[in-house]
């Protein structure tokens, strides 16, 4: 009977040692990751770079997507109506009816900062004169990048096709 107890106790100790070692290994890995990333490693250039002849040249040409003008020429105003939902939280489509943002009725071709009874931030008036489709595209892509200091809190619409469709929809609302 003593022999069975010894074997069970020995196996328990071995299993405990293996689990304890694994736990120490995992905690060590976690601590090393925290120390490495807290020090800011990887956020700067290499200290020493070995120049390689032709290393910077790429054989593949950089492909850029179609221009906004090309995408806008094929824009679908009906699809832009679906993009409008994100804007409708702060803007209205009725002429002269402002909300958190100004009315967007007739915005395409309108002089920037001229919607009646709406207080614009000065940064918008400084970056553009007229809301052309190109200016609207740049603003919708990155409002704070296009007009730093703007009061618009929207983060931007990433897809060029979505922006073109939305602008086509807004342009179709008025004469």
TrEMBL record:
Residues 75-174 form the Cytochrome c domain. Keywords: Electron transport, Heme, Iron, Metal-binding, Transport. GO terms for molecular function: electron transfer activity; heme binding; metal ion binding. It comes from the Bacteria. The keyword Protease does not apply. PANTHER family: CYTOCHROME C. This is Cytochrome c-552. It comes from Octadecabacter ascidiaceicola.
